[in-house]
Amino acid sequence: MANNSGISAAEEERPPDRPALAIVLILGAMFVFVSMDGMAKSLAVEGMPPERIIFIRYVFASLLLMPAVLWHWRSRPARTKRPFLHILRGVLLISSGTVFVYGLRTLPLETATAIAFVSPLYVTALSIPFLGEKVGIRRWSAVVVGFIGVLLILRPGSESFAIEMLIPLVSSLCWAGGLIITRSMRGRESPLTILIWTTGTGLVVIAPLGLMGWEMPSDRALGILVVIALCHTAGQYLTIRAFMLASASILAPFSYSTIIWATLIGAVFFSSLPDMATIAGTLTLACAGLYVWHRERLVTGTPTVPGGSISEASRDQT
Questions:
Q1: CA nearest 184: which of 100, 270, 126?
Q2: Is 110 within 8 Å of 263 (Cβ atoms)?
Q3: pLDDT digits (tens, 9 = 90+) for 73-118
Q4: Measuring CA to CA, which of 4, 45, 200, 204 is 20 to 30 A from 279?
Q5: Is 229 within 8 Å of 35 (Cβ atoms)?
Q6: 4 φ, ψ (degrees, to nearest 5)
């Protein structure tokens, strides 16, 4: 109900925009997410099955989510009229995460992260059949340029090409599917509802694979897994808080800071650095993604955020 000034109660309760703080939060969230990937890579390289890494991450993430669920229990946060969409989203995201860790076993962190920048281009293409959006020649041109950037990174037919480089492409496609579903639920579901269903679905799906051939992790590995779960929860929280303080139009470009963090972490902890072709492809892909962001901001007002899934629904719930 609106008050005498014509401002709704929801608008009165919405915190004022604080773009500077929001940018700091989104930069921190991207660093936390890449750090999580770096730790997952170290465990995968040491021989831990990726599905077990993801399973234990989801177990700890579920435990960390439980206080929020109990705190809001009276409002029935798990209630929804869209269970199929939530389950499909959970399956897509757990698939994306597991497949990505498989890629990290052999790929440099910065290379896998760079290839994953293709997700906004997937979203642009998928938004036509699934969301009924109209995509003009400018955004289609950016999509083509972006895939040229992918080819620069992959260099199929050259000695540097490895079949494992296709894995982040599959992971990004699953992630883009999750983003499409998030967009379809914009303003209809709360971030907590989305988190509950995504985490619960992912845990049910990955549990049989994670428990297969179970071996108890070492104390060191278990400690890393706990930190990974903390990073997962902290990254989600920072991202949602950022989108409560500023619009996606402002924050989307800063999601590309992941490549900076990935390069630094790869150099320091894995002694890997991207070659010139990878740098050129990454810049091409990032520029294409940023142009898509620019056009979406002008045309639809809802630009795609690389790596932002739950966050894309949070703005409408504040």
A1: 126
A2: yes
A3: 888 888 888 899 999 999 999 999 999 999 999 999 999 999 998 9
A4: 45
A5: no
A6: -60, -25
